[in-house]
Amino acid sequence: MRVYVGNMGIIVSNGRNVEEFGNNIFTGKSGIKKLTNYDYSDAPVRIGGEVLNEWLKSGSDSMDERSWALLEIAAEEAVTPLHDKFPLFEADRIGVFSGTSYTGSEIILENYKLYLNKQTYKISPMTMIKAMRYYSSSNLARKYKTEGPLLTYDTACSSSLHALGNAYKMVHSGVLDIAIVAGVDTPLTLTSIICWDRLRILANNESSPEKAAMPFDQNSSGIVLGEGAGVIVLASEKAIDAMKVKPLAEVAGYGYSNDPTHITKSNPDYMVKSMQKAFSDHPEYKDSVNYIQAHGTGTRVNDMEESRAIRTFFGDLTKNIKVNSIKSIVGHLIGGSGITSAIATVIQMKENKLHPTLNLNSPYSEFNINYVGSKSESWNISSAIINAFAFGGSFASVLVRRID
Questions:
Q1: What is the rounded CA–CA span in Å between residue 383 and residue 381?
Q2: Cβ(136)–Cβ(65) under 8 Å?
Q3: pLDDT tens across 197-241, in order?
Q4: CATH class of 3-243
Q5: Four-residue CA torsion sign, 355, 402, 337, 134
């Protein structure tokens, strides 16, 4: 069963929809800036890929549960145009899959402060509901009246790519006709920033925030956090035909692995295994891969190991493969990063060009990788691999193919 991308939606720091996001990634318009939505005067790092509060819907509960405020916008772009076709299918053959990692944590913290101040009477009875990782995706399922599986993945930076991969598997196997796949994360809270900074991996350049994220550059000082949401609607070949929708791309494989060797330093052997498994359904497509949307966070060791893994797995084919990282433009969305990478990949596939990897001035030369530099390049993507390699060892890779 072939599986297609039927529609997409996104809101991130440099774009409020697919068109705006697409235009801005090709011109290299960064969404990384000084943080302004809250009081960050006590934060050790005050930059990030922030979605401005003014972009959110008027009257939304953005101050109450930000992840749903973001996800609702992305879903309205991706799902609403197709929703009138959903009655063509049994409701239990439409599923919702999401990936996130930090949503809800700030709600728990704020209510814990009330407890410490002996103000428990102010704690809302909805607190624990809204603090659950799958609160926003549960809202999504209710809004669109789906009755199929409702699954939320929390595997740190690979969360939403695992959501996409597992959704693909369920549609590919014939269990589902349609899968709504979401990724959302909101790590730009004071507590989150402090904790990430304690790992000593946050980049900081307050005078020029747009220059802070430097994936695959030898002078990179770490990651830049970002927030946002993205949604992809997957559909089987029969469902695409029934809805009379022109597909945007084909999802053709899903790979995964677990790296048990170290909690933060990724082992390239397991990166290779993840990419290798992405071709399990279609091993013949490996030779046609000519683009990789890399995990590429800006942590020097892991960027080097991902480069090593690409070279190891693809060998001489590497010379025909272009590599970039969307995190240089919008920051690292943690659990939402995989879906952002997938949407960026499909946009590049459609437009026959590649977005730049901003601030890539001194790339690693020892792996002979064709990194896309600081300017957009013309390129016709035939088949693409999207990587997400998380702290903790949960790795994911997804194979996406062009539709002519």
A1: 6
A2: yes
A3: 999 999 999 999 999 999 999 999 999 999 999 999 999 999 999
A4: alpha beta
A5: positive
